[in-house]
Amino acid sequence: MKLDVINLDGGSAGSVELDDALFGLEPRADILHRVVRWQRNNAQQGTHKVKTRSEVSYSTKKIYRQKGTGGARHGARSAPIFRSGGIYKGPMPRSHGHDLPKKVRKLGLMHALSAKAKAGQLVVIDNATSEGKTSALAKQIRELGWKRALVIDGAEVNEGFAQAARNIEGLDVLPSMGANVYDILKRDTLVLTKAGIEALEARLK
Description:
The protein is of the alpha/beta class. Helix content is about 35%, strand content about 15%. It has two domains: about 1-45 and about 95-205, Ribosomal protein L4/L1 (Ribosomal Protein L4, Chain: A); about 50-90, no CATH class. The two termini are about 15 Å apart.
């Protein structure tokens, strides 16, 4: 697959050949769904907690005599049947994460890249460098028409570009090792640098 390369000023900077094994697949929603679900589940804190009957602040004194009241037999107000009593089988701190084979994770990233390429939402730029001026970069982004974009660079992100992009709404920057399915799919435009393409090809082959 051949794609035109532009620079941040909108000018042409030649073309690049994309590997069909990474960018030419037929996107599979089931694989993408599995990887995104795995990512979001791992991101959950799992710190939700309720109090059981042994933890609520109540006396353990028997609330009324065992027999002769005509009511049910109860030992304490902390029983789950009472208002403000302990919660039975409520949520407890736990991990929501689950295992996903490395091959599926790798395949998911390849299908995410292919999905963006097929939808025409993939842009290749020569490099992502800036003097660190947010106003100048914001103007370039506006002229290019990127509203919600993710820029993936090589092994390291240019410090000036990262600093300039920090306060631009809808623009995120990641190094190639930080590329992931969820972040790619939730943006309207995926922007790759030449160095980013080389790094992704080396990572996924």
